[in-house]
Amino acid sequence: MYKVQSVLINKHKYTLREAENVILDSRYFKLKKMDETKNEYRFRQIDPNYLHRQGYNKIITKNLGRNSGIELVIYYKE
Fold first, then answer.
1. Which residue pairs, CB below 8 angstroms and at least 24 apart, start in 44-47?
2. N or C: at which end does the chain have fewer Cβ atoms within 10 angstroms?
3. Mean pLDDT, range 58-73, rounded to an integer
4. Per residue in 23-35, pLDDT tens?
5. What CA–CA distance (Å, rounded) separates 30 from 5?
């Protein structure tokens, strides 16, 4: 079982408006909390503390295509 905790979008490939549109155009993701780092926009889908309390403790990052500039932070329950 897994949950997508955050969607990471590369700032060098997308403007903030374009990144927000990626999230809004998706049927799977929501615009909730967004954090900005030097290289990416991080759109939080689920609070990581909540996931840890629910037993999701294995974390991986999955690229959505070699040059897409979009990654998912995925939490798995072991």
1. 44/5, 44/6, 45/3, 45/4, 45/5, 45/6, 45/7, 46/3, 46/4, 46/5, 46/75
2. C
3. 96
4. 999 989 999 899 9
5. 11
Q: How many domains does the chain have?
A: 1
Q: What are phi and psi of 18, to 5 degrees?
A: -65, -40
DSSP label of 67: T
Domain that holds residue 16: 2-77
Contact between 53 and 46 under an 8 Å Cβ cutoff? The reply is no
Please list the residues that pair with 8 across neighbouring strands. Answer: 42, 71
CA 15: distance to chain centroid? 16
pLDDT value of residue 78 = 84
Q: Which residue has the tokens 């060098």?
A: 12
